[in-house]
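Researcher: Quick test of sequence recovery. C-alpha cells follow.
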C-alpha cells in the first residue's frame, strides 16, 4: 500500500535520510531563516514598499524578530527538541543586541576559543560539559566493592572532581579519567598535580578505549550517548563489573539498581554486567 505524504512528512523523511547532527540542522535552519529575511528585505527595498528609513532600529528589530520566528517555525517543522526552539528564537536577538554594543571583535574570538576548548566536539558527541556534585560522588563511592585494586574510570571526566574524590577515599583503587575536551582535561591534570592525586587523567575519546580492565565505569553523559555506551559495556566489560550512569537511563534496559542521591539530585542508574 502506498501512502501519500504531505510536504512536512517528505521533509522529515529527507532529513532522516541525511542523518544530520542537531547542531548541523540548527545551522541550516538559522541560515535558511536569514536567507528568507534577506530576500524579504531586498524585495521591500526594490519595490520601495517600506516607509521607514531602511536602517532605522525598528526596521532592523522587525527583521530580527521575523528571523527568530521563522527559525522557530522551521525547527518546529523538522521536529527539533523543544529547548532548541528557544535557542533558535533567542540566537538572532542576541546577535543583534551584541552588534549594537560594538564590542571589539577580539572578544568574540576569545569567547569562541574559550567555548571551543571547553566544549570541543560537543556538536558531534552531544555530551556537553556539566559537573556532577559531591553528593553523587559519595554515592558512587558506596558502590565500589570492598576488594583492593579495583579499577575505576570516569568516562568524560571533566574537571576531574569525581575521580579525585574516589581516589582520595579509596586509595587502594586504581582510578582513571578520560576527557575529550582540552580545557577540562588540562584543568583536571593541574588539579591532580596540586592535590598530589594519583588519578591518571588521559585526553581522548572513551569510545576508543578498551573497557575490559575496568571494574566500575562512571558516566555522566547525555541521552544521545547511552545506547552505544551500553553496547560497548556489554561487549567489553568483564562479568560482574558495574556501569554507573548519573541522570541518564539506557532505553529499554532495566537497571540493576536505581539510587536517589538527594532531594535536589537526579538519579544514579547502576547496571551489573
Ligand atoms: C556532563 S560532563 C561530566 C563531567 C564529569 N564526569 C563530572 O561528573 O563532573 C561530560 C563530559 O564528557 C566529556 N565527553 C563527551 N564526550 C566524550 C568522549 N567521547 N570521550 C571523552 N569525554 C567525552 C565532555 O567534554 C564533558 O566534559
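Model:
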Amino acid at each position: 500500500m502506498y501512502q501519500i505524504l504531505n510536504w512536512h512528512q517528505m521533509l522529515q523523511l529527507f532529513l532522516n535520510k541525511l542523518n544530520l547532527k542537531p547542531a548541523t540542522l540548527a545551522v541550516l535552519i538559522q541560515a535558511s531563516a536569514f536567507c528568507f529575511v534577506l530576500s524579504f528585505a531586498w524585495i521591500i527595498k526594490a519595490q520601495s514598499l517600506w516607509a521607514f528609513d531602511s536602517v532605522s532600529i525598528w526596521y532592523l528589530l522587525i527583521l530580527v524578530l521575523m528571523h527568530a520566528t521563522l527559525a522557530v517555525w522551521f525547527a518546529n517543522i523538522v521536529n527539533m527538541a523543544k529547548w532548541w526552539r528557544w535557542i533558535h528564537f533567542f540566537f538572532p536577538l542576541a546577535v543583534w543586541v551584541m552588534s549594537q554594543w560594538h564590542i571589539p571583535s577580539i572578544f568574540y574570538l576569545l569567547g569562541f576559543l574559550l567555548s571551543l576548548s571547553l566544549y570541543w566536539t560537543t556538536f558531534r558527541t552531544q555530551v556537553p560539559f556539566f559537573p556532577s556534585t559531591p553528593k553523587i560522588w559519595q554515592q558512587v563511592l558506596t558502590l565500589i566493592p570492598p576488594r583492593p585494586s579495583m579499577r575505576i574510570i570516569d568516562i568524560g571526566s571533566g574537571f576531574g572532581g569525581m575521580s579525585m574524590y574516589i581516589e582520595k577515599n579509596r586509595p587502594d583503587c586504581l582510578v582513571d579519567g578520560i576527557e575529550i575536551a582540552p580545557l577540562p582535561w588540562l584543568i583536571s591534570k593541574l588539579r591532580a598535580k596540586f592535590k598530589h592525586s594519583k588519578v591518571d587523567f588521559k585526553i581522548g575519546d572513551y569510545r576508543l578505549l578498551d573497557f575490559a580492565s575496568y571494574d566500575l565505569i562512571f558516566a555522566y553523559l547525555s541521552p544521545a550517548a547511552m545506547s552505544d555506551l551500553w553496547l560497548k559495556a556489554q561487549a567489553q566489560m568483564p562479568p560482574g563489573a558495574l556501569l554507573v550512569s548519573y541522570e541518564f537511563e539506557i532505553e529499554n534496559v532495566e537497571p540493576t539498581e536505581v539510587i536517589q542521591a538527594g532531594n535536589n539530585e537526579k538519579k544514579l542508574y547502576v547496571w551489573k554486567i
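The chain has a mean pLDDT of 89.
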